[in-house]
Amino acid sequence: MELFRMKSFQPFARARSASTRQRGYSLVELSIALAIVSVVIVGSLIGVQRILANNRANALLADVPRINAALLGALSNSKGLPTLSTTQAAALGAFPESSVKWESGKAAVTNSFGGNIFTLGVNAKIGEVEAGRGYVVRMTQIPSNMCATIANGLAPLARGIWVDDTVAEAVVDGAPDDKIVVKAIQANSGIDLAKLVDNCQAGAGTRTINALIVL
Predict the structure, then answer these.
(1) Which of 59, 170, 179, 212 has the most CB atoms lying inside 10 A of its own CB?
(2) Inter-CA distances, 189 with 112, 135, 157, 186, 213, Å
(3) pLDDT for 86
């Protein structure tokens, strides 16, 4: 009877011992788990970055109707539109106060991507737009991957849009090169998607978007 008990216990003990040894994770299993966690973290970070970029783009697009509303009443019947400057627009309340920095009586306006936003007078005919009938909003340091999003967002309000790498404030005194125009400067035109992609992706880093607004 005692021998039977010992023989009966031995297989159980071996099974329990084997089960105990199998409780740990192998190096391969840990590596797979770490890889899965890494993919999830990277995917989450990319998603967060995209959300933040979209929020910045929406903030920038929201600035344009504000600029237009501030300038519409003040300049629609004014002779000052051809020489409009960012400083003048800022003095008329065209930009949020938090984005304007005054120095020696001149305003520098920062956009949501860390670049600048300028308002430029148009002192020469561009397409069908006569001098003094519109102005240009110039947005600098726009990330290439958000360039098309912003250009498309501007399309309903802008008479024409062009994309280049200009970063300075200057009065617009003629039509831009047709190669960089992504929305023709004429009524009822639409975005040229092929040119939009080419110009937004041209060069590394950031782009400048110019939108012609007619008053």
Answers:
(1) 212
(2) 28, 18, 11, 6, 14
(3) 95
pLDDT of residue 11: 55
Give a yes or no: residue 19 inside a domain: no
Which residues fall within 8 angstroms of residue 75, CB to CB, at 6 or more apart?
81, 84, 92, 135, 215
Q: Does residue 82 lie within any of the structural domains?
A: yes
Distances (CA, A) of 24 to 29, 34, 141, 156: 10, 16, 52, 62
99 DSSP β-pair partners: none
Whichever domain contains 41, its CATH number is 3.30.1690.10
149 is a domain residue: yes
pTM to 2 decimal places = 0.76
The answer to whether 160 and 174 have CB atoms below 8 angstroms apart is no
- Structural domain contains residue 18: no
Number of structural domains in the chain: 1
Q: What is the pLDDT of residue 186?
A: 86
For 207, residues 6+ apart whose C-beta sits below 8 A from its C-beta are 142, 143, 144, 147, 163, 164, 165, 199, 200
Q: Which two tokens stand for residue 17?
A: 């011992």
**Tokens of residue 81, six digits:** 């539109």
| Ordered mean pLDDT values, 10 residues apiece, the chain (215 residues) | 50 52 65 73 64 82 90 72 89 92 95 94 85 90 93 94 92 89 91 94 85 91
